[in-house]
Amino acid sequence: MSGGDAVRERALRLVDLAARDARGIVPLVLAGDPVLRAVTLPYDGQLADDELAALLDVMHRTMRAAPGVGLAAPQVGLSVALAVVEDPLADESRERVPVPFRVLVNPRYEAVGDELARHEEGCLSVPGYAAVVARHRGVHLVGHDERGVALDEELVGWPARIVQHETDHLGGTLYVDKADLRTLAAVG
Ligand code: NI
Predict the structure, then answer these.
(1) Is the Cα dihedral 95, 117, 103, 69 positive or negative?
(2) Does residue 179 sit in helix, strand or coil?
(3) pLDDT of residue 188
(4) How far is the CA of 92 from the centre of ligand 1 (A)?
(5) Which segments within the chain are labelled E, that is strand?
(6) pLDDT tens digit string along 112-144?
(7) What pTM was estimated for this model as a whole?
(8) Nearest to residue 62, comparing CAs of 83, 46, 89?
(9) In the chain, domain spans
(10) Distance in Å, CA 172 to ligand 1 centroid
(11) Which residues have a catalytic role annotated?
């Protein structure tokens, strides 16, 4: 079976699983599962438009239910370069501003400038913990959205942090790889 067929089969299974759940969500994959450590396949149209829309709906609902501000496809067991983000909150001290729901397809980022920002973050796949991660304060984001429109933009502050965290997931990297583990704290 080709990688593309496996992605489609797994995606349709997730949509089916969510359809049988009262909240329309699927279970999160937790640290320790190899899918979180794999480099994802690029998304290259493995799904029909309606199938992709249905998968992204499932990811959106699952992210909201968690709740979280980002979710990458490996976190629902799907090794393909798709992520969703949405952050309703604002917090000036962290340069956090509301981010409307959006989809990242094959995202990549590069640092803009050499300034780092140090803030605590967590991950839905590493529940119960948070740690400080030094990340680029600003990044240049490229990739596509779910309609195939090219992304080419600069982000700063918390939105840049979310994009770095989710894009890292697609390369098999978890925030704990970059965190100052002496700051690791049990939360919630
Ligand atoms: Ni995460």
Answers:
(1) negative
(2) strand
(3) 78
(4) 22
(5) 70-72, 82-87, 99-111, 116-121, 129-136, 138-144, 150-156, 179-186
(6) 999 999 999 999 999 999 999 999 999 999 999
(7) 0.96
(8) 83
(9) 3-186
(10) 11
(11) 166
CA of 169 to the centre of ligand 1 (A): 7
Please, is 57 exposed, middle or buried when counting C-beta atoms within 10 Å of its C-beta (0-12, 13-18, 19+)? middle
Residues in the chain: 188
> 60: helix, coil or strand?
helix
Here the tokens at position 3 are: 């990688």
Six token digits for residue 129: 């913990």
Report how far Cα 110 is from the mean position of its chain's Cα atoms.
17
Tell how far the Cα of 56 is from the centroid of ligand 1, in angstroms: 17
- Return the structure tokens found at 95: 């340069």
Question: Does residue 106 register a pLDDT over 80?
Answer: yes
**Class in CATH terms, 3-186:** alpha beta
